[in-house]
Inverse folding.
């Protein structure tokens, strides 16, 4: 069964006498506006990372220059054409030295200076916990429907999940694992082969399924919070879900036979009822079109894979970092 946990702050000596090393890895592309505030926020955490690794994909702006100005940040430059959500992160992790490795995206902002401390704490509870994933809070300018989606997908109650939760939770057992802000236990990551598959999206979700199927556990750590939400156009939503559908169909053998459609309908019902309850008729209509873009994109992606329409040329691997 799903286990609720109270993820209080860990008691972490200032001199780190535990001997634990923490690495943070952030892929970037044109992150000039985001990267300095993010690095500053990470440097002021109650538990400070031992290394911050930035993997930049030939940014056209001052991203690399800004990172180079921080003496404690490690800059890895790669060709933009070589970026891949899974393989690029896997490469960076293997070049890192942390016992715990935290992946973040350039647009995720810690809501408090205890983010790292709280994200790492669940690893001290159980050596079987392989992943600790953070809660995502909507931005102040997020739409009402996007805020509802974040609140549904990332609730305020922490939990530890295992293979025993699949019959009850289905895809939610590993649903909200996201490299937007997610910590991995290094030894288990490497034991399971890491991100050994090239994918255009959802490397985190797919690896989480492997973790669960291998008998390890995942902590959803609700008091480790980052501010992160989206504002996609219908075209962007379609494209994003096309890629998701393609990858889920391609790797469905590791998803324990669970379906995302059932969970998707629960989210749609929750958001729709809340929009109507608050009298947000325009938002309700807009959300309906958004759901259609998600559904059609997902189904078309799955169909494309089944027909072996590989995405060479017509679809790039450029996506959200």
């Amino acid at each position: 069964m799903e286990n609720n946990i109270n993820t209080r702050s860990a008691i972490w000596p200032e001199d780190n006498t535990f001997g634990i090393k923490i690495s943070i890895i952030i892929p970037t592309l044109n992150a000039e506006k985001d990267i300095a505030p993010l690095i500053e926020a990470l440097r002021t955490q109650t538990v400070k990372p031992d290394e911050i690794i930035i993997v930049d994909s030939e940014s056209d702006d001052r991203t690399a220059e800004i990172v180079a100005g921080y003496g404690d940040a490690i800059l890895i430059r790669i060709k933009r054409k070589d970026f891949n959500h899974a393989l690029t992160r896997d490469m960076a992790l293997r070049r890192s030295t942390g016992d715990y490795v935290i992946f973040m995206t350039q647009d995720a902002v810690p809501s408090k200076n205890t983010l790292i401390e709280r994200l790492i704490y669940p690893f001290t509870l159980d050596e079987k916990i392989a992943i600790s994933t953070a809660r995502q809070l909507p931005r102040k300018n997020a739409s009402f429907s996007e805020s509802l989606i974040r609140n549904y997908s990332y609730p305020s109650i922490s939990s530890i999940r295992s293979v025993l939760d699949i019959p009850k939770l289905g895809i939610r057992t590993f649903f909200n694992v996201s490299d937007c802000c997610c910590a991995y236990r290094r030894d288990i990551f490497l034991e399971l082969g890491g991100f050994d598959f090239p994918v255009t999206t959802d490397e985190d979700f797919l690896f989480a399924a492997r973790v669960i199927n291998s008998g390890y556990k995942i902590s959803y750590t609700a008091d480790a919070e980052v501010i992160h939400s989206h504002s996609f156009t219908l075209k962007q939503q379609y494209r994003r879900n096309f890629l998701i559908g393609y990858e889920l169909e391609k790797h469905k053998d590791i998803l324990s036979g669970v379906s995302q459609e059932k969970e998707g309908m629960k989210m749609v019902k929750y958001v729709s009822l809340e929009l109507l309850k608050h009298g947000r008729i325009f938002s309700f209509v807009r959300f309906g079109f958004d759901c259609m873009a998600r559904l059609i994109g997902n189904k078309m992606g799955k169909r494309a894979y089944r027909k072996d329409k590989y995405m060479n040329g017509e679809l790039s691997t450029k996506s959200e970092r």
